[in-house]
TrEMBL record, chain B:
Keyword ATP-binding: yes
Protein name: ABC transporter
Recorded GO MF terms: ATP binding; ATP hydrolysis activity
Superkingdom as given in the UniProt entry: Bacteria
Claim: Translocase is one of the keywords in the record: no
Pfam families listed in its UniProt record: ABC_tran, oligo_HPY
UniProt GO BP: peptide transport; transmembrane transport
SUPFAM superfamilies xref list: P-loop containing nucleoside triphosphate hydrolases
Domain ABC transporter: 19-267, 359-610
Family membership noted in the UniProt record: Belongs to the ABC transporter superfamily.
Automatic annotation (TrEMBL), chain C:
Any GO BP annotation: transmembrane transport
Transmembrane regions: 20-40, 82-107, 119-139, 145-162, 197-224, 244-269
Keyword Cell division among UniProt keywords: no
Annotated keywords: Cell membrane, Membrane, Transmembrane, Transmembrane helix, Transport
Subcellular location(s) of the protein: Cell membrane
Protein name as catalogued: Dipeptide transport system permease
Pfam hit, one: BPD_transp_1
Transmembrane is among the record's keywords: yes
Membership in a protein family: Belongs to the binding-protein-dependent transport system permease family.
Gene3D superfamilies per UniProt: MetI-like
TrEMBL record, chain D:
Protein name, per record: Dipeptide transport system permease
Short name of one Pfam family: BPD_transp_1_N
GO molecular function: dipeptide transmembrane transporter activity
Annotated TM spans: 12-30, 99-122, 142-161, 181-200, 237-262, 282-307
Family of this protein: Belongs to the binding-protein-dependent transport system permease family.
Cellular component terms per the entry's GO annotation: plasma membrane
InterPro entries: BPD_transp_1_N, MetI-like, MetI-like_sf
Keyword Cell membrane (UniProt): yes
Organism: Arthrobacter crystallopoietes BAB-32
Domain ABC transmembrane type-1 positions: 95-300
Length: 477, 629, 284, 315
C-alpha cells in the first residue's frame, strides 16, 4: 500500500478494483478480472489498443499487410524477454497463436483466431501470419487477450503463474485481498513510474472510496457507485476521471419469442424508454447515451440517438398496431448493481406505455447464464456486455441468446471485415444501423469507466478500451 | 465494626434490649400481612413464635432482616442494639453489614434457599469471608466443614463438596443452620429450622442452637409448629393469628393457662392423644371441649428418658447414629419384614383383601453417583438404600421413620416410579416398577399419588393453584369437565383448610404451610388407592396438621386408601400409622406394629429415636421442674 | 375449620406494563401502515419520476423522493407489508418447527434428542444464505423464498433455546409431580415446560424478528429477496448506502421504520415476558 | 472416559457423514453449470463438454461424491477447478480469519451484554434500566452493515484513527492487525452485544426472584453482589445457548461485515465460491462450518453440565 499522500518520490501505487480473478489463466477461464490484471502488465501482444481505440505497435515494431489483405508480416522488437529470462522470438508468436487454435485454449474467445490459416516464422524477428480471408477484426483482436504472447516453457501452470514480456511480474497474490505486481528491471521498454503496483480487490464499491479517503489505496478504478463521486469532485486532493469503456448496457429482448418477435413491439420499447433518464437515475448521469451497440472508441461508431427518440405516445401507438396493449412480460434481471438500478427505472417507464414488466431476479452469472444465455428462457433482460467490438458476436448469430435474425447483416458484415479500413468502418456502420432499425436490442448507455484517484497519481488510463488495466505508465507527480 | 458477643456491647449498657420492634406492619399493596407487631428481646432471650400457617410469622422475620419480597413493604420501627439506625427503611448499604453478622436467619425452605449451582461448603464459607470473620479462604473452608460437622452432617468434608440437590431435605436444612451460626450472631432468627429433621437429629440440632445461644448471649427468635420444641427451648412465646399477636407470655403460662381461644385451639390440636367426641383430633375450630395439659399432675407420666433439660440433651442421644448391628429385621431376612395382618390394626373397615400386598419391596438397592466434582475428578457413590424389603397390605397405614438422609425420600420416589432402583424389585398394585418403561407406569400412577417433601419445588411457579390441584384430573382416562374440576378443587381446598380464592393465586404467594397443603390437595383430588406422602405435615401448623390428619384418616376409611407415610414426627406416625418401619442409613433396622415399636423398641437406633422424641407435656413438666428445682 | 386471613383480595386485573403498551402501540403503527397501503398511498410506490429524483421533504413528498423519483413515504407504507410478512412468517416457521423440536429433544432425550439436535446442528452450520441462494436459484427469488430461507435458518436457534430451557425445567420437582400424576408427555410439555421457557422463547422471537427483517434486506440486495421495484424497507436502506454522504434522509426513513417495527416487537416481547412472570407483578 | 470419548467421536462422525451427503446433494440441486461459468458467454457445446470432462462434473454423482467425501477424513478437500488450487490451505486461511474476527466480536459482545443486561434486569423499573433495555432494543434494530459503514465514516474516513478496511494477519504485524480488526469487531459486537443484552436481561430477571438470592443477601451480600456471585451462573445457561448459536451463525453471518471491511473471511469465500459454482469449495466450506458448529456444541454441552450439576448426568 501507500503511505500518506503528498510524499515525494513514491515508488508504489495501490489500485482498488472490484472483482478478483479466480485464477490467472484466461485461456480457460472467462471473465474480465484476469485480463484486467494481467494484460499489458504481465502479458503483452504484438499490438496494443490505445486509449482512443487505435491499434498501436507493441511487441511488433511494425507490420505490413499484403495486397490481398490476407498476410500480415510482423517485425518484432529486439531485446524483449519473458520474465523467466527467455528471449521473445518469432517462434513464440507462432507458438502463441497456434496454441489459441489448439485444445489447450478452451475460452470461447478462441474463435477469434479461427481466421488464421498459418503462422510462418521468417526469422527470429520476423513472422508472417496468413489469414483464411481478409479480416479487420483480427488485428484488433491481436491487441486483446487472445493476442497475448506466451513462452512455450511458461505455460505449465498458467492458473497460478504468469510469465510474459510485460513490465511487471506477479510478486505475490494474497487471495481474497490483493495481487502485488513488481516492476521488472529487465523490461524492454520504458520502466513504469513505480516499483510495485498493488491491485486490491473489494466486493463493495463503498469500501473502495473509503479506502481511498483513509489513504489505503491511491486509485479507485472502474468505480461502481457513481453516487459517491460528489464528495470527491470538488476536492483538490483527488482527481476524478470519467472515461468510457467498451461495455454497453444492453436491454435485451428475446427476438424469437412473443411478444418481442414482433419488431413493432421491440420498437415500442425503444421509444418507451428515456435513455438519458435511465443514465441519470440509475448511474447518476455518468455514462454515454449513444443509441446503438457501439462505443465511441470503435472505428464504426456513430451517434444513433435520433433513430428512436423518447416518445411514449409513439410507443403506445406501435403497441396498439401490434395488438399488444396491456402487455404482461417477465423481466429477468441479473443480480448486479447496475442491472437492479436500471431495471427499476425501466419497469417504471414501460409501465407508462402499458407494458407491465414483472421483475424476476436471476443470480449472476450462474443462473443467468443457464436460464437466459443458454436456454433462452426469458423475455427481457439487461446485461453489461463488456467485450470489445462485440456487435457481431451479439447480433450476427441467430443462436445467440438475443435471437436476432442475422440474415440481413450476415453478408454485409463479412464484406466489411474483408474491406480496407475505411470500407470496414463504413460497412460496419451500415450493419449497425440495420441492427438498430430492427430494434434488435435497446442499448441503454455506454458504461462509464470512472476513476477516482489521488491528485498526484499520473498515467492512469481513463478509458477502458480493452479489458486490460494498463499500468505501464502509472507514476507519481 | 460493632460485633455483639458475650463481651460488653459497644453501645448502650447491658440493660438495653437486644431487639426492640415497635408497631411493625407488613403489607402488600392491597392487604396487611402482619399488623402492629411489638417485641422487646433482651440479650440471650429465647422467644418462640407460633401460630397458624400463613399468619405472618415468616413475613415478620423476613421484615426484620429487611428482605421482604418485591411488592411487600414494612412500616414501624426495628432497633437492634449496637446500631443507632432504625432497620425499617435503612439503606441497604448499612443493613448489609448487619445481615449475616449481627443478625442471621435460617429460612423456611431449604431446597430453594440454597444456590443450586454452588457446593454447600463454599456457600457456608461465603458468609465468613463476607464479614471477614475467617482469616483466609482456606480457613473459611475449614471452618465451614467444622460447622457442618457441628450440625451433625455425616461425613462433613464430603458433604461440603456436594451440591444442594445431592443432599436430603434435612441435610440441606442443617446446611442453612450452619450458615446462620457461622458468625456467632447477636440475633438468630430461625424459621422452622427443624421441620425436615428426624427427632434424633432435631434433638442434636436444638442442643447445638441452645448451646451457642447460651454461650454467646445470642437472642433467639424461633418459629415452629412444634409446641414441644417451643416448650423445650423458649422462655417466652408469642402466638400469632391472622397477622396479629394474640397472646404473649412465658412458655409455661401460655401453654398451661392459655388466655386466647386460638392458643387454646393450638394446644388442643397439638395434642395427638386427645380426641373430640367423634374420635377425631381437635382443630382450632373444635377445641372447645379441650383441657390444656396441666404440668403439675403430669410429671409422673413422663418417661424418664424423655426428660430433657436444656443443654443436656446432647448427652442422651448418641452423636453418631449406631451402625446397624444385626437389626431385628434386616435386609438379610426379607421375610422378617413383618406383614402385620389387617386384623391386628385394621381401622374401622376390615373388608380388605388380606391376600396380596399392595406394595411389595424386595432387596431394594439405590446407589447414587454423586457427580464428579470437577471434570476429571472421580465420582463418589452414595448408597441411599442398601437392600430393603417390606410389604404393605391394602388399606394399611404404613409409617416410615428414620434418620434424615436414611433414604426415605428415595424410597418414596422409587415407589412412585419416579426413580429407578439400582437393583431389587418393587411391585405396587400389581405393577413392577423396577425397570418399567414410562408407559408401563401409567397404571401404577392411576392408583398412586405422591406428596413431595419440598412444597415449593413441586409447584410450577407459572401455574395457578386451581390448575395445579386439578392436574391429576387431566391424566389420561379421566374425564372431568372444567366445571366439575372447579368444584372438586374447591372441595379439596376446603378440605385442606385453604380459602377458596387461593385457586386463582400463584404458589409464590403462599406461606410454606399453605404450599404444602396445596400439594396434599393435588395428591388427594383423584382419590388414589395408594398415597405416598413425604413429610406431608411437617410444615403445617398443628391445627392444620390435625385437619389434614383427620382428612387422611377419613380417606383411608372411606376409600380404603393405602397410606405410606414418611415423617420424622413420631407422634404423628404413632397417631396415624398402624405399622412402622424404622430406617437408618439405607436399611430397615426394625419393623412392626406401631404399638410394638413404640412400646418395646428392640433396636438401639429405634430406642434412641423414641427417647429423643419430645412431647409437650413432658417438656412443660421439665421446665416446671427446672424452675422450681 | 381454622380461621383464615380475612380478605384475600380477589385477583384484580392490573394495568399492563408500560413496555407492553408502548410495544403494542408501535406494532399497531406498523400494522396500520401496512393496512393503509392496501387502500391508499400518496403515489404509486413503484412508479419512478426521474424528473423528481432526490428531493427533500416537502408537502408533496412527506419523506422526499429516492434516486428514481419515487415517493419515499409511499414506499414506507407499502414496505410495512413486506416487513410484517417476512418477519412474522419467518419467525413463525422457526417458532413452530424449532420450539417443539427443542422441547421434544429436551424431554425425550436418547435417540430423539440425538437426531433432532444433530439435525439442528447441521442446519445451524448450513448458512441461511446458501439456502436462500438455492431457493432463489430453483424457484426464482422472491419474498416467499427469502422468508422460507430465513425461517429455516432460524430454526436451530429456537430449537437450542427451547431444549436448554426444557432440560432445566425437566430437572424440577414439579415435573416429577406431574409425572407422578400420570400426565402425558404432551401435557407436561404444554403445561409445565412451555410456560416456563416462554420467557426465553419470546425474547428469541423478538430478536429473530429483527434478524429476519434485516436478513430480508440483505437478501434483497443480493437479488435473493423481494425483487424490485416492490419497496421493502431493507432494500430501501441498502439502496440508500451510496447516498449517506449526500442525502442521508434516504437512509433515515427506512432505518427509522425498521427501528420502530423491531422496537415494537421487542417491547411487546419484553412486556409479555414480564407479564407472564407471576413473580414479577404479583401474579395479578 | 475412553468409552464416552469414543461415543462422542462416533456421534460426531455420523453427523458429519450425514452432513456431507446433504451438502453434496444441495450443491447439485442448485442450477448453474461450473463449466458454463468458467467459459462465460459464447461458450460452445464442444468446449463445454471438454471443460466438464476436465472438471469431472460429467461423472455420475455417486462417483463424484465418494471422490470428494473420501478425501475429507484426511483433510483433503480436493482441488478447486476454479482456482486450480488445493482447497484445504485456502479454506484454513479463511477459517482462521473468520474465527479470529468472530470470536473477538463475541467476546466484546459478552463484555457489553453481561453488565448491561444485568443492569437492565436489576433496574428494570428505574430509568437507567429502561434506558439500557431501550438502547439494546435499538441496537438490535441496526443492521450490522450500517453499524460498519457508520464506524468507517466516523473513525476511519472522518477522524482517521483507523484504516477504513483491509486485513493483516496477527502474526504478520500485530499492531496493524489490531488497528484493522478494531472497527469490524466493534461493528459486529455492537449488534451482537445488543442482542445478547436482551437475553442476559431476560435470564437475570428469571433468577432475580429466586430464594437463594434472598439467602445470599441474608448473609450480608449487596443486591448486586448477590446477583453476581449467585445469580449470574444460574442465568448463564440460556445465555450460553444463545451465544453458541450466534457464534456459529456469525461465522458466515459476518459476510456483510467482511464485505464492508474487505476482510478475507469464510463468508466471502463462500459467497464467491457459490457465485462461481465452485462446488468443491462450497462443500468444503460448509463441512468446515459443520465441524466448527459440532465442536462448539460439544463444548457447550460439556459447559452445561459443568455450569449446572443438576442437568442430566453424563448421557
Ligand atoms: N410474595 C408474597 N406476596 C403476597 N403475599 C404473600 C407473599 N408471600 C406470602 N404471602 C402471604 O402472606 C401471609 C403470611 O405468610 P408467611 O409466610 O409469613 O406465613 P407463615 O406464618 O410463615 O406460615 P407458615 O407457617 O405456613 O410458613 C400468607 O397469607 C401468604 O399467603
Ligand atoms: N440426586 C442425588 N445425588 C446424590 N446423592 C443423593 C441424591 N439424592 C439423595 N442423595 C443422598 O441419598 C441419601 C438419602 O437421601 P433421601 O433424600 O432419600 O433421605 P431422606 O431419608 O429423605 O432424608 P430427610 O429426612 O432429610 O429428607 C442422602 O445421603 C443424600 O445425600
Ligand atoms: Mg413461614
Ligand atoms: Mg426426604
Amino acid at each position: 500500500g501507500s503511505t500518506a499522500s503528498g510524499e515525494a518520490a513514491k515508488d508504489s501505487v495501490t489500485v482498488a478494483l472490484t472483482g478478483e480473478p479466480v485464477n490467472l489463466d484466461f485461456t480457460t477461464t472467462a471473465g474480465a478480472a484476469i485480463p484486467q490484471a494481467l494484460m499489458s502488465n504481465v502479458y503483452e501482444g504484438l499490438v496494443e489498443i490505445d486509449q482512443e481505440g487505435n491499434i498501436q505497435p507493441l511487441l511488433a515494431e511494425s507490420w505490413e499487410l499484403s495486397e490481398d489483405r490476407k498476410t500480415y508480416t510482423f517485425k518484432l522488437r529486439e531485446g524483449a524477454t519473458f520474465s523467466n529470462g527467455e528471449p521473445f522470438t518469432a517462434e513464440d508468436v507462432k507458438f502463441s497463436i497456434e496454441r489459441v487454435q489448439s485444445d489447450e485454449w478452451v475460452s470461447s474467445l478462441k474463435s477469434k483466431m479461427d481466421v488464421v490459416d498459418s503462422v510462418n516464422v521468417l526469422s527470429d524477428t520476423e513472422v508472417e501470419v496468413v489469414l483464411k480471408q481478409p479480416s479487420n477484426a483480427w488485428l484488433f483482436d491481436m491487441g486483446t487477450l487472445v493476442g497475448a504472447m506466451f513462452d512455450p516453457s511458461g505455460v505449465e501452470d498458467l492458473a497460478n503463474t504468469a510469465i510474459g514480456t510485460g513490465p511487471y511480474t506477479i510478486e505475490a497474490w494474497n487471495r481474497g485481498q490483493s495481487i502485488e505486481l513488481a516492476a521488472r528491471d529487465d523490461y524492454w521498454g520504458e520502466a513504469p513510474g513505480v516499483e510495485t503496483a498493488t491491485l486490491r480487490y473489494f466486493a463493495d464499491a463503498v469500501a473502495t472510496t473509503n479506502a481511498l479517503q483513509s489513504g489505503d489505496v491511491d486509485v479507485v478504478y472502474n468505480m461502481q457507485a457513481p453516487e459517491l463521486l460528489s464528495s470527491f469532485e470538488g476536492d483538490d486532493k483527488y482527481q476524478v476521471l470519467e472515461g468510457t469503456s467498451n461495455g454497453e448496457i444492453v436491454l435485451s429482448m428475446n427476438n424469437q419469442e412473443a411478444p418481442f418477435d414482433d419488431v413493432r413491439v421491440r420498437q415500442a420499447v425503444m421509444h418507451a424508454i428515456d435513455r438519458q433518464a435511465v443514465v441519470d437515475t440509475a448511474w447518476n448521469g455518468y455514462g454515454t447515451v449513444v443509441g446503438g451497440p457501439v462505443p465511441p472508441t470503435d472505428p464504426y461508431y456513430e451517434d444513433l440517438n435520433d433513430v428512436y427518440p423518447y416518445d411514449p405516445a409513439k410507443a403506445r401507438e406501435l403497441l396498439k398496431e401490434a395488438g399488444a396493449e396491456n402487455l404482461d412480460i417477465t423481466f429477468t434481471v441479473p443480480t448486479r448493481p447496475y442491472a437492479t438500478a436500471v431495471s427499476e427505472i425501466v419497469v417504471s417507464q414501460l409501465a407508462e406505455v402499458g407494458i407491465n414488466a414483472k421483475i424476476e431476479s436471476a443470480e449472476f452469472p450462474a443462473v443467468w447464464l443457464d436460464q437466459v444465455f443458454t436456454k433462452h428462457d426469458y423475455q427481457m433482460s439487461v446485461v453489461l456486455a463488456v467485450e470489445s467490438r462485440d456487435v457481431l458476436a451479439m447480433f450476427n448469430n441467430p443462436d445467440y441468446y438475443l435471437g436476432y435474425d442475422n440474415s440481413k447483416i450476415k453478408d454485409a458484415a463479412a464484406e466489411a471485415d474483408a474491406a480496407d479500413e475505411a470500407g470496414y468502418a463504413e460497412g460496419m456502420k451500415d450493419v449497425v444501423r440495420t441492427i438498430v432499425d430492427d430494434a434488435a436490442a435497446n442499448t441503454l448507455f455506454i458504461f462509464p469507466n470512472i476513476v477516482v484517484a489521488d491528485a498526484n497519481v499520473t498515467g492512469i488510463p481513463a478509458n477502458s478500451v480493452t479489458e486490460a488495466l494498463d499500468l505501464t505508465n502509472i507514476g507519481w507527480k | 465494626m460493632a460485633r455483639l458477643s458475650d463481651t460488653a456491647p459497644v453501645h448502650g449498657g447491658p440493660d438495653e434490649p437486644l431487639l426492640r420492634v415497635e408497631s411493625l406492619t407488613v403489607s402488600t399493596q392491597d392487604r396487611p400481612l402482619v399488623s402492629d407487631f411489638n417485641l422487646t428481646m433482651s440479650r440471650g432471650e429465647r422467644i418462640g413464635l407460633i401460630g397458624e400457617s400463613g399468619s405472618g410469622k415468616s413475613m415478620t422475620t423476613t421484615a426484620l432482616m429487611g428482605l421482604l419480597p418485591e411488592g411487600v413493604t414494612a412500616t414501624g420501627s426495628i432497633k437492634l442494639a449496637g446500631h443507632d439506625l432504625d432497620l425499617v427503611g435503612a439503606p441497604d448499604q448499612q443493613l448489609r453489614r448487619i445481615r449475616g453478622n449481627d443478625m442471621t436467619m435460617v429460612f423456611q425452605e431449604p431446597l430453594t434457599a440454597l444456590n443450586p449451582l454452588m457446593k454447600v461448603g463454599p456457600q457456608v464459607a461465603e458468609i465468613m469471608l463476607k464479614h471477614r470473620t475467617a482469616s483466609s479462604r482456606a480457613a473459611a473452608s475449614a471452618k465451614a466443614v467444622e460447622l457442618l460437622a457441628g450440625v451433625k452432617l455425616p461425613d462433613p468434608a464430603e458433604a461440603a463438596k456436594a451440591y444442594p440437590h445431592q443432599l436430603s431435605g434435612g441435610q440441606r436444612q442443617r446446611v442453612m443452620l450452619a450458615m446462620a451460626l457461622a458468625n456467632d450472631p447477636a440475633l438468630l432468627l430461625c424459621d422452622e429450622p427443624t421441620t425436615a429433621l428426624d427427632v434424633t437429629v432435631q434433638r442434636q440440632v436444638l442442643d447445638l442452637i441452645l448451646e451457642s445461644v447460651q454461650q454467646r448471649g445470642t437472642g433467639l427468635l424461633f418459629i415452629t409448629h412444634d409446641l414441644s420444641v417451643v416448650a423445650n427451648i423458649c422462655d417466652r412465646v408469642l402466638v400469632m393469628n391472622n397477622g396479629q399477636v394474640v397472646e404473649e407470655g412465658t412458655t409455661v403460662d401460655v401453654f398451661s393457662r392459655p388466655q386466647h381461644p386460638y392458643t387454646r385451639g393450638l394446644l388442643a390440636a397439638s395434642d395427638l392423644d386427645a380426641t373430640d367426641a367423634d374420635g377425631r383430633l381437635f382443630t382450632v375450630a373444635s377445641a372447645g371441649g379441650y383441657t390444656p395439659p396441666a404440668p403439675d399432675h403430669l410429671v409422673d407420666e413422663v418417661p424418664a428418658a424423655a426428660v430433657h433439660t436444656p443443654g443436656t440433651g446432647a448427652k442422651t442421644t448418641e452423636t453418631e447414629a449406631p451402625a446397624p448391628t444385626t437389626p431385628a429385621t434386616g435386609p438379610a431376612e426379607p421375610a422378617g419384614a413383618v406383614v402385620v395382618g389387617p386384623e391386628t390394626t385394621a381401622p374401622a373397615t376390615t373388608t380388605l383383601d388380606a391376600g396380596a400386598p399392595v406394595i411389595s419391596v424386595k432387596d431394594l438397592v439405590r446407589t447414587y453417583q454423586r457427580q464428579r466434582t470437577s471434570l476429571f475428578g472421580k465420582r463418589t457413590e452414595v448408597p441411599a438404600l442398601r437392600g430393603i424389603s417390606f410389604d404393605v397390605a391394602a388399606g394399611q397405614r404404613f409409617g416410615v421413620v428414620g434418620e434424615s438422609g436414611s433414604g426415605k425420600s428415595t424410597l418414596l420416589r422409587i415407589l412412585a416410579g419416579l426413580d429407578q432402583p439400582t437393583s431389587g424389585s418393587v411391585r405396587v398394585a400389581g405393577n413392577e416398577v423396577a425397570g418399567a418403561k414410562e408407559h408401563e407406569l401409567a397404571e401404577l400412577r392411576r392408583q398412586l399419588q405422591i406428596v413431595f417433601q419440598d412444597p415449593m419445588g413441586s409447584l410450577n411457579p407459572r401455574m395457578r393453584v386451581q390448575d395445579i390441584i386439578a392436574e391429576p384430573l387431566l391424566a389420561p382416562g379421566q374425564k372431568v369437565d372444567s366445571a366439575r374440576q372447579r368444584k372438586l378443587v374447591a372441595e379439596m381446598l376446603a378440605a385442606v383448610g385453604l380459602p377458596a380464592d387461593s385457586a386463582d393465586r400463584f404458589p409464590h404467594q403462599f406461606s410454606g404451610g399453605q404450599r404444602q397443603r396445596i400439594s396434599i390437595a393435588r395428591a388427594l383430588i383423584c382419590q388414589p388407592r395408594v398415597l405416598v406422602a413425604d413429610e406431608p405435615v411437617s410444615a403445617l401448623d398443628v391445627s392444620v396438621r390435625a385437619q389434614v390428619l383427620n382428612l387422611l384418616s377419613d380417606l383411608v376409611d372411606e376409600y380404603q386408601l393405602t397410606l405410606v407415610f414418611v415423617s420424622h414426627d413420631l407422634g404423628v406416625v404413632r397417631y396415624i400409622c398402624d405399622n412402622v418401619v424404622v430406617m437408618n442409613r439405607g436399611q430397615i433396622v426394625e419393623s412392626g406394629s406401631t404399638e410394638q415399636i413404640y412400646e418395646a423398641p428392640r433396636h438401639d437406633y429405634t430406642r434412641t429415636l423414641v427417647n429423643s422424641s419430645m412431647s409437650l407435656r413432658a417438656e412443660l413438666a421439665a421446665r416446671e421442674a427446672a424452675l422450681s428445682g | 375449620m381454622t380461621t383464615q386471613p380475612a380478605a384475600v383480595v380477589r385477583s384484580t386485573r392490573r394495568r399492563p406494563p408500560a413496555t407492553l403498551l408502548v410495544g403494542a402501540a408501535l406494532v399497531l403503527l406498523v400494522v396500520l401502515a401496512a393496512l393503509v397501503s392496501f387502500i391508499w398511498t400518496p403515489y404509486n410506490p413503484e412508479q419512478a419520476f426521474p424528473a423528481d429524483r432526490l428531493q427533500g421533504s416537502s408537502a408533496a413528498h412527506l419523506m422526499g423522493t429516492d434516486r428514481y423519483g419515487r415517493d419515499v413515504f409511499s414506499g414506507i407504507l407499502y414496505g410495512a407489508r413486506i416487513t410484517l410478512l417476512v418477519g412474522l412468517v419467518a419467525v413463525g416457521i422457526a417458532l413452530l418447527v424449532g420450539t417443539p423440536l427443542g422441547i421434544l429433544a429436551g424431554m425425550r432425550g436418547g435417540a430423539v434428542e440425538e437426531v433432532s439436535m444433530r439435525a439442528a446442528d447441521i442446519l445451524l452450520a448450513f448458512p441461511a444464505l446458501l439456502v436462500a441462494i438455492m431457493f432463489g436459484a430453483v424457484f426464482g427469488a422472491s419474498t416467499t423464498t427469502a422468508m422460507l430461507a430465513i425461517g429455516i435458518g432460524s430454526i436451530p436457534g429456537f430449537a437450542r433455546v427451547a431444549r436448554s430451557g426444557t432440560l432445566q425445567v425437566m430437572s424440577t420437582e414439579y415435573v416429577l409431580a406431574a409425572k407422578a400424576s400420570s400426565q402425558s408427555a404432551f401435557r407436561i410439555a404444554r403445561r409445565h415446560v412451555l410456560p416456563n421457557i416462554a420467557g426465553m422463547v419470546v425474547v428469541q422471537c423478538s430478536v429473530s424478528f429483527a434478524i429476519a427483517v434485516l436478513a430480508e434486506a440483505a437478501l434483497s440486495f443480493l437479488g435473493l429477496g423481494t425483487p424490485p421495484p416492490v419497496p421493502s424497507w431493507g432494500r430501501m436502506l441498502q439502496e440508500s448506502q451510496q447516498f449517506l454522504g449526500t442525502y442521508p434522509m434516504l437512509a433515515v426513513w427506512p432505518g427509522l421504520a425498521i427501528a420502530v417495527a423491531v422496537l415494537g416487537f421487542n417491547l411487546l416481547g419484553d412486556g409479555l415476558r414480564d407479564k407472564f412472570d407471576p413473580k414479577l407483578n404479583g401474579g395479578r | 472416559m475412553a468409552i464416552r470419548l469414543l461415543v462422542n467421536l462416533a456421534r460426531f462422525a455420523v453427523t458429519y457423514v450425514a452432513a456431507t451427503v446433504l451438502v453434496f446433494l444441495f450443491m447439485r440441486a442448485i442450477p448453474g453449470d461450473p463449466a458454463q461459468i468458467a467459459l462465460g458467454v459464447n461458450a460452445t457445446p464442444e468446449l463445454l463438454a471438454q471443460t466438464r470432462a476436465e472438471f469431472g462434473t460429467d461423472r455420475p454423482l455417486i462417483v463424484q461424491y465418494f471422490d470428494w467425501a473420501l478425501g475429507l477424513p484426511m483433510g483433503d478437500f480436493g482441488t478447486s477447478y476454479v482456482t486450480r488450487q488445493d482447497i484445504s490451505p485456502l479454506v484454513l486461511d479463511r477459517v482462521q480469519v473468520s474465527l479470529i474476527l468472530v470470536v473477538l466480536a463475541m467476546i466484546v459482545a459478552l463484555l457489553i451484554a453481561v453488565p448491561f443486561g444485568t443492569l437492565a434486569a436489576v433496574k428494570h423499573r428505574s430509568p437507567g434500566g429502561i434506558l439500557v433495555s431501550g438502547a439494546s432494543q435499538l441496537g438490535v434494530a441496526v443492521p450490522n452493515f450500517l453499524a460498519g459503514i457508520l464506524l468507517v465514516v466516523v473513525f476511519a474516513v472522518g477522524l482517521g484513527w483507523f484504516p477504513a478496511n483491509g486485513w493483516t494477519a496477527p502474526a504478520e504485524d500485530f499492531g496493524d492487525f489490531l488497528s484493522r480488526v478494531a472497527l469490524p469487531v466493534l461493528a459486529l459486537a455492537s449488534v451482537q452485544g445488543a442482542i445478547l443484552t436482551r437475553y442476559v436481561r431476560s435470564a437475570v430477571m428469571e433468577v432475580m426472584s429466586e430464594d437463594y438470592l434472598r439467602t445470599a443477601r441474608a448473609k450480608g451480600l449487596g443486591k448486586m453482589e448477590a446477583l453476581l456471585k449467585h445469580g449470574l451462573r444460574n442465568a448463564s445457561i440460556p445465555v450460553l445457548t444463545v451465544t453458541s448459536v450466534q457464534l456459529a451463525a456469525l461465522i458466515i453471518g459476518a459476510v456483510v461485515i467482511e464485505r464492508v471491511f474487505v476482510i478475507p473471511g469464510l463468508g466471502s469465500m463462500l459467497l464467491d465460491a457459490v457465485g462461481n459454482r465452485d462446488l468443491l469449495t462450497v462443500q468444503s466450506v460448509v463441512m468446515v462450518l459443520v465441524a466448527i458448529t459440532l465442536i462448539i456444541n460439544l463444548v457447550v454441552d460439556v459447559l452445561y453440565t459443568v455450569l449446572d450439576p443438576r442437568i442430566r448426568k453424563a448421557s
